[in-house]
Amino acid sequence: MNDDLPAAAPPAPVDPQPTSHAPAAPRRLWPGYLLIAAYWAVRTAIGRLELPITTSFMGLAGVGVLVTLLFVIWWLTNRSVAGRDRLMVFAAVVLGGAAAIAASQNTLGPVGVIFIGLPWVLTVWIVWMAIVRRAPAPVFRWGTMAAVCLPWVYVSLVKMNGVSGDVKFQTQWRWTPTAEDTYLAARAKTAADAQSADAAEQDPPARDLVAQPGDWTAFRGPLRNGEVRGLKIGVDWEKSPPKQVWRQRIGPAWSSVVIVDGRLFTQEQVGEQELVVCLDAQSGKRLWSHEDPVRYWDSQSGAGPRATPEFFAGDLYTQGGTGILNCLDAASGRAKWSRNLVKDTDAALPMWGFSSSPLVVDDVVVTFAGGKDGKGLVAYRTNDGSPAWTAGTGPISYSSAQPITVDDETLVVFLSDEGVIAVDPASGKLAWQYQALGHGVWRVVQPTALGGGSIMVGSEDLGTVCLETRKEDGQWQVRKRWTSNQLRPSFNDVVVYDGCAYGFDLGIFCCFDTQTGKRRWKGGRYGHGQVLLLTDQALLLVTAESGEAVLLEATPEKHRELARMQAIEGKTWNHPAIAHGCLYLRNDQEIACYRLPPASDEMAAR
Predict the structure, then answer these.
(1) What are phi and psi of 566, to 5 degrees?
(2) Range of the domain at 58
């Protein structure tokens, strides 16, 4: 070895190479924070504001689309995150959503999966990134990909049981039995009882049924106005509450009930069969049923028929969710004739099913079909079901025809998305019309007679409109008297007492003056419920969306609640009925009868 050679210089220090597990530089996430915070703030505000259902739904959908678009743009252009990570996480979101749609329960569908799942995907996405903001790349990448898939997994494991009146999705685990599942299972387990019921159905009463004083013969009562006459009840329900006579499960439907000669009639869905059923009004025992092999269902409202039967001269007229109009013998359930509105009028199946409750006037039964070429409102002869006449309406309505008498002349009045028409019930000839285009917005509630030729109509988009009608020189005249945005009914009908209307302004109960359209008070939060008027006592019986029965004073002074009780369980949109001192309630799960307490001497003297 040559000692004269210069010593080798020591190697220069080498910077250690960064490893994949080294902490990353903080990632820029504040735009994502702002977007998600803004989304939930707007969503909360929409839920608390008194907005029409259509406005709420479109608002939620619009803000969801906008936030998602901005979030994706921010994410794909966020240079503080490695390009590969951005693409891989975005791909996980897209593929996870596609897998959730493929695996989802059929009550959701693609729109439901995206509407429910996507907001939570974005929220979990930004929350997780905040947690791992400084984490090494693999932890950030794979953790974020897993995090964004979790909400999609959740959505694939739930099913939807419709929406509430304020458009809140109602979900449950997909393996949890629905109320309809439980009802069908109970029916299957009681085959012996069903056979007994069948035997009873084959032995109908020998006599024809005849409407008695105090019966509830049609949708919203004999006058189709939600009014109960000839009854006074006790108002101290703490001391003397309504007594449950019977209560039982029933198949889904939004139909109300009619009570005739000791019989209760309603409709329900039982599997793939749509039923008209007759029960004993005092026991709930099934006496007969009529079946049609059809099923109507939509993701928001669920399964079953929507309309309420009408009794007339021994017969029962019913309309199903798919448009089957039946005339049945009320005593036995025997079919006399049947029509299919879709085939008769070439009408499209409405988004939420055929909902118009049949109206019998003289010798015709009138209902809404929404067909083209003047086949919106249709009438059939009651004796044989042959077509009598048709009248033009808009294509969209969930309202029912209403008979209104002015100067001793009865007209059939109807509200659709094109406005209001009044026709002669014998010929269908147009008497007058009031044009009010709804631009596709549904209209549900019935026209209300105020007396003296004044008629009130309402919907979310119209508010409430008072029309004044009269006949001059043989010609009908109609003009708008006033318009008010202080009562905007969704699908909740109103009652009128002593110059005031009582009903729901969207989801809040209120009172307003029918002479001026000015609100007197607003204060009852009962969801999207329904109301009856007990005229003899100036009382209001409200059925809340929650299934509670609430008693109020019909007074313009202030909202004054007298009593309440939980009557049935589940979402209750169906109209209640009162006959012979009994309150009948139902929803898509239960049906019940309560005997109302008799009035005390002090109350009876009012």
Answers:
(1) -85, 115
(2) 30-173
